[in-house]
Amino acid sequence: MMKLHGYFRSSASYRVRIALNLKGLTAEHLPHHLRKGEQRSPVYLALNPQGLVPTLEDDSGTALIQSLAIIEWLDETHPEPPLLPKDPLRRAQVRAFAQVLACDTHPVQNLKVLARLRELGLPEDKVTAWAGWANREGLAACEALVKHEPGPFCFGATPTLADLCLVPQLGNARRFGVDVGAFPRLLQAEAAAKALPAFAQAAPERQPDAE
Amino acid sequence: MMKLHGYFRSSASYRVRIALNLKGLTAEHLPHHLRKGEQRSPVYLALNPQGLVPTLEDDSGTALIQSLAIIEWLDETHPEPPLLPKDPLRRAQVRAFAQVLACDTHPVQNLKVLARLRELGLPEDKVTAWAGWANREGLAACEALVKHEPGPFCFGATPTLADLCLVPQLGNARRFGVDVGAFPRLLQAEAAAKALPAFAQAAPERQPDAE
Questions:
Q1: Is the ipTM of this complex over 0.90?
Q2: How many independent structural domains does chain A possess?
Q3: Residue of chain B with shortest Cα separation from A70
Q4: Do A63 and A37 form a contact (C-beta atoms < 8 A)?
Q5: Is A47 inside a domain boundary?
């Protein structure tokens, strides 16, 4: 059986949990408590030299890292239902939306970066403002990318990699006090996604390690 | 003809320039001076709502954003030479390496984030230290990912998406004072890449807008 090393609140782990559920795949879930630094153990670093979650071990124990790479691998090895459109231009649009969040938004507000800001002496209100800023910028760009797309999901009638990134990011945005009402098209996609068991069961509060 | 909106020093633009060169494709290069905020003009924001470079306009004027999505589109529409292996697991490894840099490293040290740190009152030496830290963490993980890979490139005998991300990032790392001698396997891949005209001609200092 595959093993997913994750953390209930990690957005990147959350994306992979949704992908596994949509594909109907099961994996053993191995939580690593990020705030306690469990992802920094030598055993885990041998699997994932970044010391980040998620890591997916395939059936033969080979470790895959980076959520988007893991999800594309799942999509290539278990094609149904597809998480990317067939047309190259549409694939590029879905991937670009996902990368606005997975490259330019989430890593700028993750636990590691916020901890570094605190080390530099930034007070807590400014740390939260930083995280809010990163979320607002990323989500505003995403809203612009899909505002003329027919819904209900980000790109059409079925969920794609874009929705897998959007739902966890909106959760982060709310935690950092962002007014997500400014992004009505994104909220439409989120509502469609959350109505699916694959998304609902992947939610942080439904994980065994949730606090 | 395709149009590439970029900036000579932008790592993400640099990646796409290498990909175009490897594929033997030409594009009209349209520089946007990031330090002067030219990427924030309303005309450009209509193409790229993030106000970042690169943006690639295809032959019909459709705008593609996000460097990794652009490169995968180029690879899907112009398959030779391939920038990803055929085997799904190898593809996942190449993509993961690229994402360590494109998601977790570069966006944490880009112009926009460093400007924000300055706005928060961080002195210049601490801003440079921040950028150095992000580069060191990302490159150390990349070194671990490929240290047992046969070279000379990151993943074998030909360049892949991994090398397209590595070469620009090593340039950034040096600018921020990182001791790149700590990453011998990455330097081997960089040397192999820089010997190719496709990489050499994409270098920042060879661009018309270079200062």
A1: yes
A2: 2
A3: B92
A4: no
A5: yes
